[in-house]
Design a protein that fits this description.
single chain; 400 residues; alpha/beta; 7-stranded mixed β-sheet; 3-stranded antiparallel β-sheet; globular
Length: 400
């Protein structure tokens, strides 16, 4: 039998999705599963986008330009201007989701063997994209005890060598919900400038910031304009995960030309997705405010509920719609599996993502889970109740 590639063997399974077969089996047994494992918003897509989807009147569903429709890119310029991010349409390349933007950035900026410094825990698919590009991720660990704040600059410099090409951040962060401070962003800027690195900045959760502190984009950092690659997506801000529309943004013209070669090789980003995304920019301020207010309420419900369960701890996330929580268990992944295979309370159970899958360093995060607060408040409250019951019954519970 032919062998699969070393790259295929090294590719990590998704910590978010790999336990899905167990959840499906539980549902087949009639158990209701509260899904806290995946960042799939349940809030409605803007009506403006849905209306376009329902009224598309085209005789041909053709290729779009490889860099995306110009009308959409022009409209995005106005969107980013609201966040004091000054762009031209030429700075923006539309991609098939934010995932493709990360992959194309890696393929265009990194050679096999090059290294990227990434604060961990981090979005698990970054590792998959690095493997695809032949690059290596070097992680700098943040801890739940310190609220996942960045370590001092010396810790970064310990990792920098002749193969280091970039720093990658997600701000606000997935999976922790952490929001980088101005001091931390300036620290990153100084490192990027000093060592002439790329800064990949995944900012798909910018609408969801729950603090009075100003939003600091990588595009706000002075002196490294040619080094910054902004990653974006409409999946979260408009509840449009399925249309697969993202963006890669950079003022580095030479880099854009390299990225375009990959864009041309995959022909075009989604036609219908771009039509929906372009219309969604016109969503009302009321829509944006209602979505934001709902996530604030859900965050408060989740964090308050988690920290009331004996032995459970979660810092307060300042952005996105995730948190990482520590549980009083021997192994969080085993606990999650047990919840899906051996436990139910009144016909219900919970599913979370093991946080160990968001760390690269072995042995870290074994008693932590990532929880997405994408359920309505009554469902979140019930899920928290079921979680508490599961922790009471779990054979591998640790004394606290």
């Amino acid at each position: 039998m032919p062998q699969i590639s070393d790259r295929g063997i090294a590719m990590p399974a998704s910590p978010i999705r790999k336990l899905t077969p167990l959840a499906n089996a539980a549902k087949e047994r009639g158990v209701h599963v509260f899904h806290l494992n995946i960042g799939q918003p349940d809030l409605p897509t803007p009506q403006e986008g849905l209306d376009v989807l329902k009224t598309i009147d085209r005789k041909i569903l053709e290729y779009s330009p490889s860099q995306g429709f110009k009308t959409y890119r022009e409209k995005l310029v106005g969107y980013y201007d609201k966040f004091n991010i000054k762009l031209s349409p030429e700075d923006i390349i539309i991609t098939s989701g934010g995932s493709e933007a990360v992959l194309f950035a890696f393929m265009s900026c990194l050679n096999p063997g090059d290294e990227i410094i990434v604060p961990e825990p981090a979005y698990a698919n970054y590792m998959a994209f690095a493997i695809s590009a032949g690059a290596k991720i070097r992680t700098i660990t943040t801890t739940i005890e310190e609220g996942f704040s960045l370590p001092k600059v010396e810790k970064f410099e310990e990792l920098i060598n002749e193969r280091t090409r970039a720093i990658l951040i997600c701000n606000p962060n997935n999976p922790t919900g952490y929001l980088y401070t101005r001091r931390e962003m300036n620290q990153i800027r100084d490192l990027v400038k000093k060592y002439d690195l790329y800064l990949f900045s995944d900012e798909v959760y910018r609408e969801f910031i729950y603090t009075g502190s100003p939003y600091i984009s990588a595009c706000h950092l002075e002196g490294i304009e040619q080094n910054v690659v902004l990653i974006d997506s409409v999946s979260k801000r408009y509840s449009e995960c399925g249309i697969r529309v993202g963006a890669l943004i950079t003022k580095n013209e030479k880099l854009r030309k390299a990225v375009m070669k990959f864009c041309q090789a995959r022909l075009s980003p989604p036609l219908i997705g771009q039509l929906v995304a372009e219309a969604s920019i016109d969503a009302s301020e009321e829509y944006t405010r209602d979505v934001y207010d709902e996530y604030v309420e859900r965050r408060n419900t989740l964090i308050d509920g988690l920290n009331r369960i004996p032995g459970v701890y979660s810092p307060i996330p300042m952005g996105a719609f995730y948190t990482v929580a520590r549980l009083p268990v021997d192994n969080a992944e085993k606990f999650i599996m047990w919840c899906l295979t051996d436990f139910q309370y009144e016909g219900q159970t919970v599913m979370m993502a093991p946080a160990s899958g968001f760390y690269t360093t072995p042995g870290i995060g074994l008693d932590e889970v990532r929880i997405a607060y994408v359920l309505k408040k009554p469902d979140l409250e019930r899920a928290l109740f079921i979680l508490a019951k599961a922790l009471e019954a779990y054979p591998g519970r640790k004394d606290v």
